[in-house]
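Work Package 4 report. The design task specified in the project plan requires that, given a folded chain encoded as structure tokens, an amino acid be chosen for each position. We show below one input record used in the internal validation round.
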């Protein structure tokens, strides 16, 4: 007979809002709640991987130091036009602040799995073995920003397309109680802002696209829109992603509800506003504080 509950932590997708996972993990630890199983989708996979590889503080330090200018350096569309993120720079970032390439999931102190999507079949893929960095990379490869990742003869993309909050993965790995973090609870319709991007006529297509995304990543967002202006390109994309994530998240959580759900209020942070880590982390901490009595009640009852 088990003498201790096995706690699973399901860290959801949500791009720049995902820094709130750091505040949630830290606040749960203050309550004495330390997960045995960590599963993540997209940015949740990245933060979860840093946690299980004992690099969470390093990742937090980097996130808090990030500026708009530094964030913009990550955007550089490649010549094959299959992604906006500078892959070499991103790989260095993962190695320095999440895990080195030789760290294997099965050697981590806690059980870990990430969720990705098979681009050819649309099937959900769980990555619970092998290199930790590869599992993160596949899970976080949002189409348009990252190229698809080859894994065991499958092209994988962002897991948020199929399972934004991986409660089911935590249960499959043996969790008695699942604490889930939903970053998409209040995001629909909150970011209809217009980006003002000046592009000169003599630039090539690659230069135009790169500057456009850098501007979007560095000045997110301009507040100069009027009711008569249509949303900008990336505002429309961000809104579409938000709607999709919200609908899929609702459906998955209804079918497999967690024991405890944490929903930080993050609608004020845009899809690519990665430099706003301090706000997201603080809201993660506040979210746990608001739910403290419920968390304790559920764990004591179980």
């Amino acid at each position: 007979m088990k003498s201790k509950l096995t706690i699973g932590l399901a860290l959801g997708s949500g791009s720049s809002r995902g820094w709130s996972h750091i505040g949630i993990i830290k606040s749960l630890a203050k309550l004495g709640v330390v997960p045995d199983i960590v599963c993540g989708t997209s940015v949740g996979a990245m933060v979860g991987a840093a946690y299980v590889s004992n690099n969470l503080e390093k990742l937090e330090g980097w996130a808090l130091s990030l500026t708009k200018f530094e964030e913009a350096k990550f955007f550089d569309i490649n010549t094959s036009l299959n992604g906006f993120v500078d892959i070499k720079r991103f790989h260095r970032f993962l190695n320095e602040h999440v895990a080195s390439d030789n760290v294997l999931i099965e050697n981590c102190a806690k059980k870990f799995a990430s969720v990705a999507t098979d681009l050819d079949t649309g099937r959900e893929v769980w990555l619970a073995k092998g290199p930790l960095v590869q599992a993160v990379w596949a899970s976080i490869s949002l189409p348009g920003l990252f190229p698809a990742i080859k894994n065991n003869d499958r092209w994988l993309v962002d897991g948020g397309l199929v399972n934004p909050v991986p409660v089911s993965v935590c249960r499959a790995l043996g969790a008695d109680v699942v604490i889930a973090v939903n970053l998409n609870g209040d995001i629909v319709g909150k970011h209809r802002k217009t980006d003002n991007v000046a592009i000169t006529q003599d630039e090539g297509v690659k230069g135009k696209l790169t500057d456009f995304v850098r501007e979007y990543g560095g000045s997110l967002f301009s507040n100069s829109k009027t009711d008569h202006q249509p949303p900008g390109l990336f505002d429309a994309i961000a809104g579409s992603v938000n709607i999709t994530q919200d609908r899929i998240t609702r459906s998955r959580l209804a079918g497999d509800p967690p024991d405890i759900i944490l929903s930080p209020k993050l609608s004020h942070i845009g899809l690519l506003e990665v430099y706003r880590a301090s706000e997201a982390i603080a809201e993660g901490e506040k979210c746990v504080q608001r739910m403290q009595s419920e968390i304790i009640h559920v764990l004591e009852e179980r």
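Strands lie at 7-11, 37-41, 111-118, 124-127, 149-151, 154-158, 177-181, 260-262. Validation will be extended to a larger panel in the next phase.
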